[in-house]
Description:
20 strands; alpha+beta; Dipeptide-binding Protein, domain 3; globular; 5-stranded antiparallel beta sheet; D-Maltodextrin-Binding Protein, domain 2; 15 helices
Amino acid sequence: MRFNKFLAVLLSLIMVATFAIGCKKPAEENKNDAPKTTEDTTEQNTDESKDDKDAAKDEKPADGIQEGGTFVISMAREPGQYNPCATADDAAYQIIQNVFNKLLKINGNNEIIPDLAESYEYKDDGKTLIFHLRENVKWHDGVDFSADDVKWTFDKIMSEKGFASNSLSDVKEVNVIDNNTVEFKLEEPNAGLLGYIAWVGTYIMPKHIYDGTDWLENPANQSPIGTGPFKFVEQVEGESVTLEKNPDFFGKGPYVDKLVYRIIPDGNTQYQAWLNNETDHSMAGAPAEELPKLEQDEKFRLVPKTWPNKSYICFNMESGKFTDPKLREAILYGIDREDIFKKVYKSQGAISNYFIPPEYKWALNEDVKSPDRDVEKAMKLIEEAGYTKDADGYYFETTIDTFPGWDDFCVVLADQLKEIGIKLTHNGMDDPTYDEKVLEKKDFELTVLGGYQGPDIASMGSRFQTGGPMNYGNYSSEEMDKELNAGNTATTLEDRAVHYKRVQEILREDLPVVFFWDRGTQYPIKNYVKGSPADEAREEVSESEFSQVWIDESLKK
C-alpha cells in the first residue's frame, strides 16, 4: 500500500489511518512493545483490577458526560466488506475498529494497551506467549466470547494467508488452555510480535459465525458481528454506514447512541460539510491552508498529531548510478529538508532529522542525524565519483519515478538538485504502472516512498533486511541483517536498543534511503466534541475508535 492509499493505518490513522501497512502510509510509539522478562513473569497491561472495571461499568458516566445523540463522521470511500482479518479494506477499517476487538490494541499515543486480553506473559525463554482474556464478554448476538474464538481466528489467519499472516510467521501453534486463557507457541523469541498482534488484521472473529464456511463469502462480511462498542446496523450504498450503541460493551462507554459514517469522496467537500456542521468529525482533517483560520476560531481546537511515518528518497542499490555511495551521499547533502518541509508540507509534521521515528525514544540514537545542506560538499562528492559538468552546468541527469501525489515534492526537489549539478526528470505514473515498473521489476534509479514505521521498530526489517517485502531498492548488508535479527529476538528494551542504535549507524553509513519528512498535522476538533480519540481519549482508545466520544450540547451551535 502506498502513502496515498492506506491506512490513513493506523489514517484516519488520520489517524491510521491511519493505518498504512508499512507501505507508503501512517501511526506511532510503543511503550511496552517488548517483554520485560522471559521466565514466568506476567506483564500486566491494566491499571485497574477486573472488580474495579466491573464496578465502574455499573456506575453512571463521570460528571459532565452527556449520553445519547448521533455522532456523524465523513469518510472518502465506501467499505467493500467487513471481514476484519482476510484482506485490507481501508474504508472498512475505520468501522471495524468500532465493531471488533483485538487481544491488544495500539492507542493514540502508539502504546500497546489491553483489549480482549487483560494481561500477557512470556515463558520458556520467550518461546511461549500466554494471554489471559477478559471474562463475561459477549458477541453482539449474545453468544459468549471465549478462547476458542481466539484460536480459531489466528489459525484461520495463518492457514488462509490472511492480511497479518506474514507478521505471524514465528507462531508455530495457538492452543486453548482454558476458556479464558490462550497460548502462542513461537519458533523463537519475537519481541515485535506484540506490536503486530495489536496492529492490523488481527481482530478476533466469531467462531460460531464463520466456522465451517468460506470466510471470504460468509454473509457476516457484509453485516459484521463483533464484541466492540458499536453494533452494525446498515450500509446504504453510496451514502452511509450506521452503527448503534452496544449496551453490553465490556469497556468504558459508548456514550453516543449512533455512529453514522457519511461517504463523501471529495476531500474539500468533506471539509465544507464538517465546517457547516453537517458532520461532527472528518477523516480527511482540514487542508493545511485552512489551519491558521481554524486556530483563530474559538469553536475549534487544533491538536498536534505525528506518527512514526517517514517519507524518503529510495535508491536502486543493485543497478544504475546510485550504486555509487558517493552519489547517494551527494543527494543527502544536496537536499534542503527544511525547504521541503515549508514549501511542500506547509510546516505540518516535522523535518526528518533522524534515521528512525523519534517516537521510539528508547531506541533513538541521537548521535546519528541527517546533516544540514552543504551544496559545495555535495558537488565535491559528485566530482570524486568521476563526473564533470557539461555545457549546461550538469554533472549528470537522472529520473525519479513516483506514484500519484508527489508532484509538488518533485518540483522542489528538482530545483534543489539543479543547484548541485544534477538534472532531475520526474516520471509520474498511475498506481498500476508504478507498481509494475518500480515495485515489481525494480526498474528505477530514484523513487520516493513514505511509510508507517510501526507497530514496532522491528518493522524496519521489512524495508532494510535482505529480501524484506518493502525493501524496494534491494539493499543488502550482512551486518544490517545481523543487527535487525538480534534486535527482534532480544528480550529487554535495553538489549534491543543496543542493536537498533547500531542499525541507525549502518543506515547512515550505507544510505539506502534519504529521509526528509516525518508525517504529521494539526488535527482540527470541534469544541463540542469531547472524548475524541485524537485528543482527550488518546491513551484509552485506538485512533478511530469512538467509544468515548460524547457531544456537549451546550457548545453545539
